Each structure stands twice: as C-alpha cells, then as structure tokens.
Amino acid sequence: MRFTFAVDLQIHQIRQCLKVDVETGSSDVGQCLTMKFRLALIQLMVSPLKANNLNRIGTLVKEAASRGAKIVSLPECFNSPYGTKYFRENAERIPGESTKVLSETAKEFGVYLIGGSIPEEDNGKVYNSCTVFAPDGSMLLKYRKIHLFDIDVPGKITFQESETLSPGNQLCTFDTPYCKVGIGICYDLRFAELAQIYTQKGCQLLIYPAAFNMTTGPAHWELLQKARAVDNQVYVAAVSPARNDKSSYVAWGHTTVVNPWGEVVAKAGSEETIIYADIDLKYLSDIRQQIPVLKQKRHDLYRVQAVQDCKP
C-alpha cells in the first residue's frame, strides 16, 4: 500500500510540473520536483580490449539499478584506454558498436545511462564524445568534448589531445523526470562559463566523465568540482576510470559527487567501484533561497551565454 501511494504521489508531482511547464512556457520540468533520486557513478577499470569493456557494462549497470539508481554514468574513455595513440585506432561511428551496447543496457535496466565517452570517428575527424540514453533505449544526445586537453607542466606532464582529437562546438543538456542534467568531459570542468550556462538553462546536476592524472588530480580534481558546485549551487559529479598504474596514462580515480554547499557527499578511492549519491533537489532549492546569488547577478553589467546549443 505504501509503495502504491508513493508511486501515485510521484505521478501526481510530475503531472503538476507538466501543468506548470505548459503555463509558464519553461522547458525545465525538473525544477519544480522536490524529490530525491539516486545517482550511480561507475569507476571502471578499463581494459586494453574494447570487447572486454563492453561485455562488463551490463553487469555493472545491473548492480547500480538494483540499488535504486535512476541515472548511471560511466567514465571518460570507458571502452578503450585513454591516450593520443589509442584514440584513432579505437574510434568508431555513432551509432556504432559501443552505443548499441549502451542503448540495450539502458533499456534492459530502465535507467538514464550516460555513456562516459568514447573516441568517435566522423568524416575523418576523431572526437571525444559522450552519448546519453533514456530508459527506453533512445539516444538523447551526443556531446563532443569542447575544450581539448593540451597542457605542459614542466617535469611532470605534457599532453596534447589536439594531436589526434578535434573539438566539439555544442553544449548539451537532457531532461529527466527528476531534473535537467548538463554534460561536460574532463578538461571542460576547468571552464566556469560552461557550468554557468548550464545553470542558466535550468540544470541542477552537472556530470563530467573525466580522467584527471596523477599531477592534476591531487591538485585540482576535488577543488574544481567544489568551485563549480558552489558557484552555481548545483550538484557536480565527476566520473573517473579506476587507476591502472601500468597504463601509459595513469588516471587519478577518486570519482566524486559534491553538493550545492560544496560538501563531498560520495567519493571513491583509486580502485574499480560504484559510488552512489542521493540527489536532494529540496536541499538544492533551500540553498538557493538562503544565498540567492543566482537571482542577484548583475546582468546589466555582465553576461555569459551560449553561442551554439546541442542539436536534436
């Protein structure tokens, strides 16, 4: 009886939000839903063999769904090793082999599945691309990493994604019955403007599949997530591959979720694991009411806006 009542209540809340959405003209249905939902982040130990990685996705997503996760995310480059020498050799078309597995998995377990990222080939170019699938298996979006990881820290790390990859040029969000979600990939986390625009668009959760390394990870991984969360009063999640010390590029790990107050509410170590966080939209709303910085911005003096949004 309690279960039936809870389901009926949730349906009523969604219907009310749809009604408000039509009356106000807002596309952000999730804004008025004051409920909790569970987010799962899979910190996968990525194998050099694509088939091995794809074969393991179902088992891990099944575990997450069995523990109540409604949105599940994989890490950056979940289907193949991260590195400029691997991108082109593992690149595939979208839709393709990897996205077929993601679509089938999302549908089988009835979750919103964020497919981390994969190397995508399109017209001779290679992109670092994230696809998202609905519980019915349909693809909701394809986001191509817009900021390429080109850095040189003397004596520690030099990396040039642009040697192989091309940048994307669109910002992408997707709606769920819980809230609107914004997507970035790894280095995108360093660019505050992206998070600001997503917040302006009504996002309450930002998810970044990411593979920081053993130099940038200890220094900036958690700091950047806290900054994006506090600045925009949103939940921020960053999903890393598990650390493999034998890889040519060693990921930091430490998949993390930060709440709108800047507190770490879930965090992994370096090993393969799944972490969970209950996203509390009522808590987010309370924070925005207590410290209403989003309403206090001086748009007469400054403004950040998107030039190119995600195409359907």
Task: Characterise the protein shown here.
With 312 residues, this protein is of the alpha/beta class. It is 31% helix and 25% strand. The protein contains seven helices and 15 strands. Helix 2 (50-66) runs parallel beside helix 4. The longest helix is centred in the N-terminal third of the chain and has 23 residues, at 2-24. The radius of gyration is 19 Å and the shape is globular.
Q: What is the SS-derived class?
A: alpha/beta
The major sheet is characterized as: 7 strands, mixed
| Beta-strand content estimate | 25-35%
Q: Point out poorly predicted stretches.
A: 1-10, 18-31
Q: Give the % helix.
A: 25-40%
**Amino-to-carboxy terminus distance:** 40 Å
Shape: globular
Quick synopsis:
The protein has about 300 residues and is an alpha/beta fold.
List the helices and strands and how they pair.
Layout: H1 2-24, E1 36-43, H2 50-66, E2 69-73, H3 84-90, H4 97-109, E3 112-114, E4 118-122, E5 125-133, E6 139-144, E7 150-153, E8 157-160, E9 172-175, E10 180-183, H5 192-200, E11 203-209, H6 216-232, E12 235-239, E13 256-258, E14 264-267, E15 273-280, H7 281-290
Parallel strand pairs: 1-2, 2-3, 10-11, 11-12
Antiparallel strand pairs: 1-15, 3-5, 4-5, 5-6, 7-8, 9-10, 12-13, 13-14
Helix pairs in contact: 2-4
Give short descriptive properties of this protein:
312 residues, alpha/beta, seven-stranded mixed sheet, six-stranded mixed sheet, 7 helices, 25% strand
